[in-house]
Design brief:
With 194 residues, the chain is of the alpha/beta class. The protein contains 9 helices and 5 strands; from the N terminus they run E-H-E-H-H-H-E-H-E-H-H-H-E-H. Helix 1 packs across helix 9, helix 2 crosses helix 3 and helix 4 runs parallel beside helix 5.
Amino acid sequence: MSVRLRPSSMARVVAVCGMPGSGKGEFAQVLSENNIPVLSMGDMVRAEVRRLELEESPGIFGEIAAQLRAEHGEDVLAVRLADAVDAHLESNSIVLIEGMRGTAERVVFDGRWGKDFFSLAVVASADVRFTRIQNRGRSEDGDRQAFEVRDTRERGWGLEKIIDESDFLIDNNVDLDTFRQSCYAWLESFTNQE
């Protein structure tokens, strides 16, 4: 299934947010399948872990993300990503930022793109998210305690606030096919907005 994107005079930026395991990556996959560029904030942290030649473990990604924020400001990842987003906006009508996690990041994006910036939250219960995390097998995922530590850390960055204040919300307490259909329906509606 694909969505036919209408040419638009306005280029728009969408940032997807959600608690760990909520389905942000799956949402991004649907947009990518529809030729929308996806820039991942989590990939920036994973790249930093590799650059530092650290062993990948459940805690290291969060430690590095927190360290980057402590050393360079809560908005460091957003500031670093914004120019790359602008480059994609030159030839695309929509660009997706995957993994906005805090209020400081949203402030950067709002300031950069104003009325052409939108946020979308993917939500799912803690139990559903933990089950998904156990099944996906990423090196940053761990046991229930690591999951809860990660949730607490990301809440501390303002993640719950930006979820609550998102322009759009997609419920992902559903099976994968149903969720993907919701993503396609959202994309079709969004691309037809003027």
